[in-house]
Amino acid sequence: MSFKKVPTMLAAGALAMASASTALAGEVLKWAHVYETGSAYHQVAEWAADEISERTDGRVEIKVFPASTLGKEVEINEGLGIGSVDIIYTGPSFVERYYGPIAISDYPFIMRGFDHWKSYRSSDLFSELSAGYNGATGNHVLGLVYYGQRHVTSNKPILSPADMEGLKIRVPNSPVMLMFPNSVGANPTPMAFSEVYLALQQGVVDAQENPLPTIQFKKFYEVQTNINLTGHILNSLLVIASDDALNRVGDDAAVVREIMDQAALKVSEEIYQSELDLVSWFREKGITVNEVDKQPFQDAVRPKLLGDDVPYTEEHFRRLGEL
Fold this sequence. Notes:
about 45% helix; alpha/beta; globular; single chain
């Protein structure tokens, strides 16, 4: 053997070992979201990560970053485009900035309940809107998650639109979330999710609105005396992965898609069940839970649902209503 070939052979061997090590380590994807570790959203994300690792024999590893550790909602949406995150939970109302029609399900009083939501989740309409979002961004919708019906919390009963006049209410920083408070004369105050508890505690805002499971795990009931069952929005989350992330996992992308869809349905069932159980739980805690006649609120919002400012078409609206 020529000694001149030894360094070349050693280099080739080192490269092969490095390649084997990389293959053994697998492709690591970062899944970012804004929810606490104790929430069902985070726990099911961890379950999905374990399932994907097992199904791919470790070729795909997902690390989940909860509680805004990689950024708030707007930032993690932007992160998909610049590669700082690979997968996110996010609301359609935030995705509206990139492709408006996909936010239709988050508009006030458009969804009729959990069964209607499930019909939408499996519909051609949702598939088409997801494809439209992919065309606009290159990112892929992997699942739709039931987030729950949003209700207003406050330190006074809210039984009619008149009770919301001038109310300083925190809403997420997205256009769709402004429609309901603006329709009833409230004063919407966009604010990051992580800042809401302290803002309520200090009186920076008078109220906020979220589904019952979120009110529970964010402990908003500690700083608000009334939960008013307005049910003004049936909220969803999207599970989204960047095009780059799916390309990096190659053939294993099919497994990632399958498990993510299963995870989305799994957490949706959990959230819906907890929503059913929580009214009595809050009342046992001494919180006043007010039943609300929704019709006056619906009447206030209805003229805007087919106005010039909505991002979806009349056909989208009709098709969703027919599901």
